[in-house]
Records
---
Amino acid sequence: MTMRSQTPAILLFAGLALFPFVARFGAQAYLLTLGARTLILALAALSLDFLVGQGALISFGHAAYLGIGAYAVVLASMAGINDLLAQALIAVAAAALFAALTGYVSLRATGVYYIMSTLAFGQMLYFLFVSLSALGGDDGYTLSSRSRLFGEPRLTSDFAFYYLCLAALALAYVMLTRICGSRFGRVLNAIRQNPLRARALGFRPFPSRLAACLIAGAIAAVAGALLANQSEFVAPAFMSWQRSGELLVMTILGGVGSLWGAVLGAIIYLALEEALSLLTDQTHVLIGPLLIVVAIFGRRGLAGALAPKASGSAA
Amino acid sequence: MHDEVAAPRPVSLALLAVQTLNGLQLGILLFLIAAGLTLTFGVMNFVNLAHGVQYMVGAYLAAMFASLTGGFWSALALTLPTALAFGLALEFLVFRWLYDRDHLSQILATFGVILFMNQGVKTIWGAAPLSVPMPDALSGSVALMPGLLFPVYRLALIAVGLATGLALYLVINHTRVGMLIRAGATNAAMVSALGVDIRRLFMLVFGFGAMLAGFAGAMVAPILSVEPGMGDNLLILAFVVIVIGGIGSIRGAFLAALMVGLIDTLGRAFGAQMLRVALAPAAANQTGRALAPMLIYILMAAVLFHRPSGLFPVTR
């Protein structure tokens, strides 16, 4: 992988940091809620982009980790653990466990079989939580309040919550960029480009791929914990296969492999959906064909269109 | 899918037979949908998420033609060519531009088709569920054994599915087109190099698969409510079927569809009762309810674990 210019990413994050100040001129509460939600789903899409772009592991069950993170908040607060950091830690541990168990089976398969096996595991978890009546089953579970941070209810302000989400997103972005440049990232990339050659050089694909699944799952679980706090409500719908599909769409729309492209893809997709819903209730009739057009004509998504040279090798 | 025929409470032979027939009927339905899907995956290596949409469109077309013509048979006769035309139109507008592209582009485009069509049917036919009248000749029930009444229509559905399976078997294994399809599933590039117009073969497979899915939608329309998004969950089940059966294999799809239909139906019906052998009744009920919908996914994981290319892998 070539070292890539960070200019688009810096501009993107600067824009996101300024957004709450711009939002003051509009319906601030509404825009901040929408903004926080967008950042959270961007975080999940970012982790999926790492998996797809660096590992060529097309997961169609990534929303499962959103659900794991969200339900970790529910279970932790039931057990009296109200601090978000502790909850996020539980979410990460649960996600790592799920990624290890499912990855052990899924990673034996390749290509379409891998895609379908991730889908199956996502559905499995979905139905498990639908049937758990103690957690509200299909109807979901309403949280009594947002989590605390360092012992104080700091997240009740939408302003603070927005910046917490932005900090999580920026942290994850920096972390994943560093991982891509590390020895581990290079091995992962070599395996993506040519598993046979990588194997001949002595790198077994399985451990690297499993590690990639653990990293991506853990980050998405943090997004899930934030999502539970954002909506103060958790339901199995968080991990429906349609949600997994949406995460993939955001990632592909943004351009796979650039990391910041996934963030941009999430912003564009959600902003478009929201903007169109103000005009018409037929949003999907418009978004659907748009996705088709992007798939046919846009070879490397938004990242490829905006920074043709900067975007690394296409998957 | 889970509006099975009501049955008496205690486990009896009759109840077991009813649920087995229900499972068989779900399996047959899954086979009709999975057959086209496994061929588009296998021959074109194409990830088609929009296959469930074709099933939904079949059901909506049947509902529309039934209200226009007033009869089920005329509606069915009109639905088949329209579903075929719809499939070919989709192929012409969307799919043929994406055959040479990676799976990601295919996922993006076909996800777009799902969004468009799920909303589209709502716009055209309204959000309220529609119903299709059952043909008079096939309404009512027959007594299969003492204490076992089963609807004639569901029996007919099973028979039609089995006949379709047989016809597909003959076409795939004993005709020239079938030979080309099998060859395409093994090595599409080689078939093309031997002078076969592979694009036309793709179009044929695609249109035919769409028609089969539309046929399935039209056939179940009288016993289900026709509503937006009705294809989504069935699509996932069809994926499970083709992965268990081996992508590209009609025989695998047939056996896996029956397995999935039976296991899902019987698991939901008897899972809790079977667990009572080992667990307390309350715990058995809770575990059974949680486990039953997961069974087919557990089966799929187990198959993938031992046979990463399904039960009947197409040799490449």
Note: The mean pLDDT of chain B is 87.
---
Amino acid sequence: MKDPYKREIAEVLAIKRETSNTNTYTFRFVEEDVQRAFRFTPGQFIIISFPGVGEAMFSIASSMSNTDSFAVAVRKVGRVTTRIHQLKVGDRLYISGPYGNGWPMKELEGKDVLIVTGGVGLPSPRPVIVHIEENRDDFGFLEILYGTRTPLESIFEWEFEKWHRMPRTKLALTVDYVPEGVEWKHSVGVVTTLLQNLVTKPRNAAALICGPEVMMHFVVQDLLRKGFNEEQLYVSLERRMRCGIAQCGHCQLGPYFVCKDGPVFKYSVIKDVPDCGI
Amino acid sequence: MTYCVVMPDAEIPRILAKLGESHKVFGPIQKGTEWVFGRVERAQDLCLDYVTTVLPPKKYFSPPRETIFTFDHDKFSRIEDLIPAEKQVLLGVHPCDVNGLKFLDRVFLGFRSDPRYLRRRNNFLIFALTCKTVSDSCFCMSMGTGPEAKSGFDVLMTDIGRRYLMESGSQEGEQVLRSLELQAATEEDLQAKRAVIERLKGEFKRSLDMAGMPELCLSSQDHPVWAKYGNICLGCGQCGMVCPTCFCFDVRDTVDVSLTKGERYREWDVCLLKEFAQVALGGNFRPERSARLRQFVCHNLSYGSYQYSMTKCVGCGRCIRICPVDIDITLIARELRGDEASGEGPI
């Protein structure tokens, strides 16, 4: 019997500095069979594991068409993420996955796609953006609204030029505030301020939202006021997780397990569920 | 076809000795003023007249602290080394706890199978025991889990007066029964068991009306009952520790002084504890006790039914018995229904 608590050996292929405390790590499973079998949907997550340190969950941030490697963006905030930040290219670690239900890729085809995200929420929908970029004709208008606390905290900034230039695409950026001496030519204000100039029309569109719950709450309320219905809105939730397979019980959200039934949920499904701040 | 034999009380020592030849025997034993499941070394240790045990049988299948694996540099232990395949028998499991194990099976062998749990489960024969009395805190009859155990055991024992009716519930159970050289049960013995069940049904003082309860919990998230009992709840988490179906665990790593050897283990965790829903940067999805109490009660009476098509609460009453401030899940259920809070309320 396959042990669901087994982790596979992976190695670090590349490390890219995103901000002062966030790096993107590209990994590959050492065993070829394991790497070949690793297929994911955008929005799914992996477990990164260090014996003696612990484990944590991360959204897969790379292209789903790349079958040779995969990447996650990691902000240094705790025990496991601090250990990840000590990794160098060529180092080995343990990884398993993918886990959970991702963004509804099939349903997005032929539709306008609105992505509203904040801070380190961007890695989760990033593979959606990359997938649309790679299959541009299969999707309608793409609108990306991204907010961070300051200009220094935005990740995947190196891709923004490319996203700006993509056909039928709008990328809008905002920050909560601009520290002195920092240049910023985009909006200032929380991410909902970007909704004032929303281009995407509710007819034949879907919105993918990923960020802190309080942010997602206000984004959802704004979009509902603008005529989106609850079935068109998708949110990706964060919860404490210890197993990824609905056994440790920590990520329970009413009748759902975020690790198994989520992390991506249709808003209509979770809107009345207790302890959900959206 | 159920295989039925009768074990006279006087035969118990012989049967235990016989079982002990091939199995490690566990069962209810007295500890101070309470009972616990423990190793039965001598026949006089076995206490089949017990009311309820402090901890349910889950401790044998999902232990309070369990090594997931040990590691030495990059070498990991095998499950076979951690959990040897030794035959064990757990005697005297009440129907509520038999159903508790059925629920845990869905957790640990459902969406994904945990080979640790499976191995422990396969090592054990379950000898269920029809209760002899109904305690003040028991309400299994409301939950459909008692007083008669219908499945989930290898053997069901029922005290029918100076002897036990022993019914097989699995092939393995039948084989064991056949090896015990006991007399076949008569129609009177079976009738005596039915009479025991009928007598027990009349002894329940506590009940919980489950009709529509899963839906009611979902629509009562803002009900004042959560704040009322959340305010007196100490957040100690004992209710979850003693619950036969509470399965949550935390995962931790330790290393020894060599810094290369260590273990990853899991340890029971309870949603009543403040850190349970805490995430990085101090975020907490259930910071208030009322939200945590609601999670515990609603998981038992509602969410579990959606997750596993089986009510999580099995009516054993342990959470009621152990609560230091007398919070009572059956009373909360009545108040949710809007029934006048009657009987003994909280302190």
Note: Chain A touches chain B at residues 1, 3-5, 9, 50-55, 77-78, 81, 238-240, 242-243, 245-250, 252, 254-255, 257, 260, 272, 274-275, 277 (CB under 8 Å).
